[in-house]
User: Fold these one by one.
Assistant:
Number 1:
Amino acid sequence: MERNNHLRQQVANLRQSLFDQGYVDEQFIELEELQDDATPNFVEEVVTLFYKDSARLIHSIDHSLENHPLDFAKLDNYMHQFKGSSSSIGAKKVKTECTQFMEYCSAGNVEGCKRTFKQLKREHTALKKKLEVYFQYARLAGPTETASCRPK
């Protein structure tokens, strides 16, 4: 029992750090509130789908950034999709980079797009690692009522 309480505290701390460090926003809480006994891994499943979809988008954007001249309309479309899926899981830092990329697309700024895309991929990877640890501990701790808890 004590081990389980310790695990739950670690999960709560990891979750809080996701908010404190600006990796996730209120949308992440909205997802958690949809999770219940019937779908105990709902948030993890949605995040897994996000990473599958975003891997495809990253590949498409990487490929498009190699073309000369750049097709800013196509890049903006890809990034609009990326921003939408990032928003749906509450990936705050990733969404911010998507917005910045789209601004550079509108301005026709090739270097700004490339630089921002590198930063977006760093944020995307960092969030993935943090969420993997969080979900790993959450599975170990088992079901809990923290889904409705708001971050401090």
Number 2:
Amino acid sequence: MPSQTKRISLLLGIVFTISATGLLSEKKSKELVVKEANIQFLSEAPQETIRGTVSKAEGSANLDTKRVVIRVDLNALNVPNRLMNNHMHENYLETEQHPIASFAGLITKWDLKTKTVEIEGDFSLHGITKKNFKIQGTIEEKEKDFLIRSNFEVILTDFKIEIPKLVILKLNEKIRIETSILWQSKE
């Protein structure tokens, strides 16, 4: 009997260890970091359509606390035309003074069944922070990673980015932002 009790105790210990390890790895996957980012902006004005891209971003998300932080390096933002690119960085975004756009907020919805995600928080651009900024998107599970896509608009005057009258027909005050960010479990 004592040896059978030892075997049962050993078996229960192994099962508990396997279960605890599973719980720990499950807990570990609740912390996410940005693996890849593709962020595009689009300005559709009467005389010109301007598209730009940036892929230099970093961020973290905690699915337990619902906290999300993401930072985008605006110096890496590019449009195809070199002159336009210089004007964008020097005259509008002033990336020398304001190199980072950031978002810090809380996940208000994370539903893998409907594949929807919503976050609300503070969006900072050009030295100005807009509170209660809402972003909605879709989630696609890719093994242990999550691909989150979202589209939203930024109004330049909300961030004190002025459009000179000379280019009003070439640059829209409303800029459409399209993001595709792959988040991975933090190791």
Number 3:
Amino acid sequence: MPNGLPAPVLELSADEARRVILRAQGFLGADSRRGGVTAMLRRLAAVQLDTISVLARSHELVAYARLGSVGRAKVERAYWHDPALAFEYWCHAACVLPIDDWPLYAFRRRAYRERRFRWHEVPPTIDKVLEQVRSEGPLTTTDLGGAKNGGPWWDWSDVKIAVEFLLDIGEVVCTRRVGWRRVYDVAERVVPSALLGQELTDTECVVRLARVAGIALGVATRADLVDFLRLRGAHTAMLDQALLDGTAGLVPVRVAGWAGGRDGRATAAGPNAWADPAALETAPRGRHRTTPLSPFDSLVWDRARTERVFGFTHRLEAYVPKEKRVHGYFTMPVLAGGRLIGRVDPARDGSTFVARQVGFEPVTGRAAGAVRAGSVEAMAEALWEAAAWVGCDDVRVERVGASDLAAPLEAALRRAPTGLV
């Protein structure tokens, strides 16, 4: 400002921030759903991959949650297309990323190259593997000679270690899969030359990715941005500077009820979050999606953020011993009316969608009865629509956490939405 004083920090209520986040993530209003899966990927900037497949794989569930009953084959084509519209790399985790963002991950490719180690020592045969991909590719690990030595999943063969490290450093790229197996090719064949030729510094990468992550999240704390991009050490310092000097293109905001300060402790004044300025220009309006969410969906993948934004505690229990699980193997939070109303642990039995366990969030206050009734109807809608999407023509609920809601949920399920069954 001309007088040298800092610009005033915009105040947002927790509800205002939540609605901005929902619109940015594609769950509020029709505009964010236009353009199909390809446009959705550009808006989200990263779609996490995971090997678990219950109703469908997580990257398919992410598209379904926002777009409804989009064909699963269409989802796959949008992610793994020829020519490449996306590539796989490390962001929040292993993710599908828009191909236009290839240059922005140069900082991470350089970091891997300098370490020459990730989960395994890089074998001396790496140059031979690269030459094989260059001369014979595109190839899967099976084509290259095998992924494992025959032991546990982490007992990778030298070929697998080499080709994965080549992916880490950007010599090879995965832009499509066959039967969930990565198909590797050399970067110069699949990454557009205009992108391949861009050489960004680490600072330029982090600054631009901070903007990308901020737009995808809508409103985010520093910790949210660090988690989205999985930044460490010097790269977090670059993020801090980009937020402070404005080069990240995000504006400081103060969200009521959110902890503030760089270390997460509340402060008396000043920003406790950062926002995409375009997302603040108009109030979020429109129809909310009612849908179950993959636990790896970017709306909920950060557990601390999920608790802060939605007051919802969620933990993935797939790797917890069965007898110690509280909510189930692949528990999916259920979104309705812009809130997380409960959760479902899904399965399939032939053409029947099975809800092995359904939980509802506790509700208090004078309108608790009406809210609980609305949650039951929304849960039934979410279960039926998801069932229809995966080709099921019946829904069976095995257990409801709130026993007094079991009969109302069964009654709501019998009133199947028109056109879904």
